Amino acid sequence: MEYPNSYLARFVARPNRFIATCRLHDELIQVHVKNTGRNKEILQPEVPVALVKSDNPQRKTQYDLVAAKVGTRWINIDSQAPNQVAFDSIKTGLIKLPGIATRDILSLKREVTFEDARFDIFGSTAKQPFFVELKGVTLANGALAAFPDAPTSRASKHVATLIRAQAAGYQTYLCFIIQMSGISKVTIYQQRDPALYAAILAAQKAGVHLLAYGCAVTPATLNATYPVTIDLAQPFTEVN
């Protein structure tokens, strides 16, 4: 996916989880942060950030903060982006769903409700309906990425519903879109969210497929490019 009207700026501060102060063309401006996670290891003072200008004149903030550069690596933090990237990549066959050939997919829809959850993607072949739930990953230490960066009861709920959908005859997938490049492995941050870790182990046993894809990221683009190994036994330590 590509962002129109992208601008480079510098991060200054984040007074709350929705708003950041950035320096654009030597002017301090308030921007909307498209991620409610902590992102404390990403949004550090003076790091380069990518802003996208909105064409909505009614908005209080003109710009969205969608990515930041940590060292030599751009990290996309737009929490809505993984859904679009995965949807497009499943359609083209770049993301391959185990047990389902791309050529056999007859329909693909976004945001479809099953019981008490709204899954990101619903699709079907002539014989098999399926759901894909997506999780964006922005936390990493070197080549190891981890999810989540904060406890998330919502994710545990989604996983529990995936298990029930699997039992009801749907093929189900939990797909991690790693919003950065240079990642060779992803794990679940067990210490951060033990309940989610237990739920994902149960999902695996129930037949839910786990998959992960790394991305090529620039200030103005995010594209899934390669499959990443999931290792649930791999411990994770945050960068201090």
Automatic annotation (TrEMBL):
| CDD domains documented for this protein | SfsA-like_bacterial (cd22359)
Query: What is an example of a Pfam family matching this protein?
Result: SfsA
Q: Which Gene3D superfamilies match?
A: 2.40.50.580, 3.40.1350.60
Q: Which domain of life is it from?
A: Bacteria
**Which residue range or ranges hold the SfsA N-terminal OB domain?**
12-77
MF terms from GO for this chain are:
DNA binding
List the InterPro entries hit by this protein, alphabetically.
SfsA (IPR005224), SfsA_C (IPR040452), SfsA_N (IPR041465)
Could you tell me which residue ranges the Sugar fermentation stimulation protein C-terminal domain spans? 80-220
Q: Which PANTHER family match?
A: SUGAR FERMENTATION STIMULATION PROTEIN A
**To which protein family does this belong?**
Belongs to the SfsA family.
Q: What is this protein called?
A: Sugar fermentation stimulation protein homolog
Q: Which organism is it from?
A: Loigolactobacillus coryniformis subsp. torquens DSM 20004 = KCTC 3535
